[in-house]
Amino acid sequence: MRPMFVFLSAKIAGEITEQTYRTASLIELLHTATLVHDDVVDDANIRRGFFSINALWKNKIAVLVGDYLLSKGLLLALDNDDFRILKIVSNAVREMSEGELLQIEKARKLDIKEEDYFKIIKSKTASLLAAACSAGAWSSGQNEADTKRFQLFGEKIGISFQIKDDLFDYGHDNIGKPTGIDIKEKKMTLPLIYTLQHADQETRRKIIYIVKNENNNRAKVKEVIAMVQQSGGIQYAKKKMQQYQEEAMELLFQFPESPERTAMEALVQYVTERKY
User: Fold this and answer.
1) Which residue range is the domain that position 256 belongs to?
2) N or C: lower Cβ tally within 10 Å for the chain?
3) How far apart (Å, rounded) are the C-alpha atoms in residues 62 and 79?
4) Is there a contact between 183 and 151 (Cβ–Cβ < 8 Å)?
5) DSSP secondary-structure letter at 110?
6) What gap in Å lies between CA 223 and CA 128, rounded to an integer?
7) Which residues pair with 109 in a beta bridge?
């Protein structure tokens, strides 16, 4: 999906060039590297229905494979003197690492506020989509204004994407992935944060206790999910997701109508309407 954002951003901003193809390759190599490393961090054995690299060959090999993929992408940019693209992507790598570290810190303390949540997902998820869009725009004509506009566009789409992903945790079993995973991993997402902010002291204390001490008890996790659903946390998160999507669309509509812009609109719609 991210290379699609690269190509569409480039075409909307100008024309697809050889640098655009390299940018799309760099973004995909980087994204794959982060997934490999994420599976190590999360101790995950499955990735997209298959065994993860760390499940097959343990963490040492997985870390090295992730490093290798990252280096291949960076060298692709360096060998072709794509220094502006490299700077965009390197900033995204830094932000993703900062977001992951902040999320780990907050998971330990369970003291996350809404502003912390948005800071985490802006860094951890949105930064790579922002890099894909801004680097794609730069590759087409090296226009700084268009590059910044697409950077903000990608950031808003990335935030919307992550909120949608977090909402899956409070859905039903037919959504294509297990529910309650974030609670088990002590990840404080927007629906849960909203619930805690608006719950009475006793309910808040109960939720925090379950997340801290009974997060592997499926019945207790379902109890938290039910409380989030009843609190209005789902509706609040959906409203925020749609807000970011609309703001992204406003930025997109600053560009002339074209088949590529229509395709980008469809891609944006997919972000918030996808089923898995």
Assistant:
1) 2-167+245-273
2) C
3) 26
4) no
5) T
6) 34
7) none
CATH number of 262's domain: 1.10.600.10
- For residues 204 and 195, give the distance between their C-alpha atoms in angstroms, rounded to a whole number: 8
Tokens of 191: 């629906």
Mean pLDDT check: name the lowest of 74-78, 139-143, 178-182: 178-182
Say how many domains are in the chain.
1
Amino acid symbol at 111: D
Task: Give the Cα separation of 18 and 28 in Å (integer).
Answer: 16
Q: How would you classify the pairing of strands 50-51 and 46-47?
A: antiparallel
Which of 159, 152, 86 is closest to 121 using CA atoms? 159
Cα distances from 141 to residues 12, 135, 136, 205, 265, in angstroms, run 11, 11, 9, 54, 22
% of the chain beyond a pLDDT of 70: 95
Question: How confident is the prediction for the chain on average, in pLDDT?
Answer: 87
